[in-house]
């Protein structure tokens, strides 16, 4: 059985899962590290997967047999290969193209589990650079800080295993990021939701993310709508934080995400960089306006990153100095508690199928 708390990263730049590492650390290790993409059944333990890699290998999050047709599996693997460890348009991508191997485990019967009233999970971009000081799984860390608290507070809520691939753009020029096209993401979410419905038989599903792309969110909702799940709700957990994030020009890996990761687990911040080198971090951050300008032309975006040494942050790290992580977390919790309360209500038409509005340039992240 999956052990979600044990799988989520507990220490930055540590362990067997690539999601615990920062962009800068992975770049430093690239020449001596290989990566493994496991394809396995939903019931395969994370510990078992981690035990089957060599000392010089790190694991990408798994893909699940039960959520994919063979054609979808092959398309997703091809897309992941095109993105990781360096995006195919990067001038250095070819020399590292052999760094990723796929390990396909045999499918196996799923173990019996108790039926949850609400099965909660995230669909986040867990393989996405978040600058020099935060781990790739920054989005998943934030989502599960909320979901695990819901599980602790509300009887019948179970925090299930995450879907850790999604749609992104801004991470690709920096490397160490995986983008699934919206079409692939929708198909995978549909398959995953159906597989979890068949396995765990939840009464309802609560699906969340913190990733800012409205394209990503709409792809998730389309996948849920095409599934056989009858009652579900989706929530972008950063929606109630717009005044702290986008309204301050702090979209990605800046002060907001730093303070929320710190609140979830301070050990997930690389203290070689933050806060001691905050001035260096600030010098390498990118403005939203520049990211939006570069997004339509990834070749140009990559060239800009390689020429300027931009560090992967699109936002304002100094925003951290005026934020209260505990208060922001409680703001997310208030919204999430209300969502789950409505799902647990037996009255009809309580599902919420709304992506939310994008608080900045649409479709850009």
Radius of gyration: 19 Å
Largest sheet: 4 strands, parallel
State the CATH superfamily name. Creatininase
Compressed to H and E, one letter per element, the order equals HHEHEEHEEHEHEHEHHHHH
Percent range of helical residues: 25-40%
Task: Count every helix, treating DSSP H or I runs of 4 or more residues as helices.
Answer: 12
Strand content: 5-15%
How many separate domains? 1
Predict the CATH topology: Rossmann fold
Contiguous low-pLDDT stretches (5 residues minimum) are 357-365
Name given to the CATH architecture: 3-Layer(aba) Sandwich
Structural class call reads alpha/beta
Which shape, going by the Cα principal axes?
globular
Q: How many E strands?
A: 8
In the CATH hierarchy, what is the class?
Answer: Alpha Beta
Overall pLDDT score: 93
């Amino acid at each position: 059985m999956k052990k979600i708390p044990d799988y989520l990263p507990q220490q930055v730049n540590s362990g067997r899962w690539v999601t615990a590492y920062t962009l800068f650390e992975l770049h430093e290790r690239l020449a001596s590290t290989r990566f493994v993409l496991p394809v396995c059944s939903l019931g395969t333990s994370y510990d078992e997967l981690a035990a089957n890699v060599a000392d010089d290998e790190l694991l990408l999050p798994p893909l699940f047999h039960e959520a994919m047709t063979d054609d979808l599996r092959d398309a997703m693997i091809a897309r992941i290969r095109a993105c990781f460890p360096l995006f195919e348009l990067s001038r250095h991508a070819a020399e590292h193209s052999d760094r990723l191997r796929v390990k396909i485990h045999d499918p196996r019967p799923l173990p019996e589990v108790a039926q949850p009233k609400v099965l909660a999970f995230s669909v986040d971009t867990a393989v996405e650079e978040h600058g020099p000081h935060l781990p790739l799984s920054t989005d998943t860390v934030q989502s599960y800080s909320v979901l695990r608290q819901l599980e602790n507070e509300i009887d019948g809520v179970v925090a299930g295993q995450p879907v850790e691939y999604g749609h992104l753009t801004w991470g690709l020029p920096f490397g160490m990021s995986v983008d699934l096209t919206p079409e692939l993401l929708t198909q995978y979410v549909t398959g995953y939701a159906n597989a979890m419905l068949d396995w765990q038989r939840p009464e309802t599903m609560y699906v969340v993310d913190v990733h800012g792309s409205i394209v990503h969110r709409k792809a998730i909702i389309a996948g849920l709508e095409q599934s056989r799940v009858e009652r579900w709700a989706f929530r972008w957990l950063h929606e109630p934080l717009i005044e702290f994030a986008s309204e301050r020009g702090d979209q990605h890996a800046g002060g907001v995400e730093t303070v929320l990761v710190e609140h979830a687990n301070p050990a997930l911040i690389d203290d070689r960089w933050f806060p001691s080198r905050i001035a260096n971090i600030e010098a390498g951050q990118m403005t939203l306006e520049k990211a939006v300008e570069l997004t339509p032309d990834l070749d140009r975006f990559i060239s800009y990153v390689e020429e300027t040494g931009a560090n992967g942050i699109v936002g304002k790290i100094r925003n951290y100095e005026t934020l209260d992580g505990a208060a922001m977390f409680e703001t997310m919790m208030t919204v999430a508690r209300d969502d789950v309360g409505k799902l647990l209500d037996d009255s009809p038409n309580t599902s919420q199928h709304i992506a939310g509005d994008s608080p900045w340039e649409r479709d850009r992240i």
